[in-house]
Amino acid sequence: MPQHPAIAFTDVAAGYDGATVLHGLDWQVARGAFVGIAGPSGAGKTTLVRLLTGQAERHAGRVEVAGETLGPRARQRIGYVPQLGGIDWDFPLRVEQAVLLGRTADSARLPWFSRSERREARELLERLGIGALARRHIRELSGGQQQRMFLARAMIRRCDILLLDEPTSGVDLATRHDILALLAELNAEGLTVLLTTHDLNWVAAQLPHIALLNGTIVREGAPREVLTPDALLATYGAHMRVLREGDQVVVTDEAPLLPHADVAASG
């Protein structure tokens, strides 16, 4: 019996208040995939994530999760890590409490989570290296620690699919490396990982699969197959240079904005 994909979009249009951001979206994400979605600002990356989490409107088409029409039950399979910049860090919440809210959107349950739920939250925080911070206020965490907290909140849902919206935005290189290592470990255990990013060279160097998005999927596949000048032009509307060495790919602007002599003179 064939296995359903983790996520399947069929001729989907989606957006907000009747305005369409995504259109004609036909795309499947295989179970156990590790995919980076890249594209320009306004391309629909965050809208795609919000469609899956119920925060954007589906105007047409069909979305399925593991063969089931997207709805409240299907969304239980999905864990979500939001952009850090959109969080109210002054909200009076401790790290353990923030993780436990992954089980329910009802903050009225605090502090009435069961002993087993609290133990599970502590175990997840320990696994992600921040067990000692369980009683800290969320605003006291560094960027990397905040990402780990939200990973724990997603994982406590016992999800099959993990969505991350710009997980490397605003964090340093060492934190990026740590986040990727955690995601790779979770993916190796069978979790489907789907993340959005503006950083083409990061996904080219680190992820096995990339999808270029601009309102719809322009091209997808291994980075060395997808990151071509014509695909980048179709996605970003700008000419870019693609440098290759073996399987490694680096994308740069077609030409420097200033001649090298002018740059040296300006110093």
Describe this entry's structure for a reader.
There is one protein chain. The chain has helices spanning 45-53, 72-75, 95-100, 115-127, 143-155, 173-188, 200-206, 223-226, 229-236, 260-266, and strands spanning 7-16, 19-29, 34-38, 57-65, 68-69, 78-81, 161-165, 192-197, 209-213, 217-221, 240-245, 248-253. The strands form 3 sheets. It has a 6-stranded mixed beta sheet, with helices on both faces. A 4-stranded antiparallel beta sheet has the order 2-1-4-5, covered by helices on one side. Residues 261-267 have low confidence and may be disordered. 34% of the residues are buried. The protein is globular, with a radius of gyration of 20 Å. The protein has 267 residues and is α/β, with parallel strands linked by helices. β1 (7-16) and β2 form a beta hairpin. α5 runs parallel beside α6.
Brief write-up:
The chain is α/β, with parallel strands linked by helices and 267 residues long. The chain is built from ten helices and twelve strands. The model is unreliable at 261-267 (pLDDT under 50).
Total DSSP E strands: 12
Q: What is the structural class?
A: alpha/beta
Envelope shape: globular
Count of DSSP H/I helices: 10
Beta-strand content bin = 25-35%
Spatial order of the strands forming the largest sheet: 6-7-8-3-9-10
- Please write the string of helix (H) and strand (E) elements: EEEHEEHEHHHEHEHEEHHEEH
How far the N terminus sits from the C terminus, by CA atoms, comes to: 65 Å
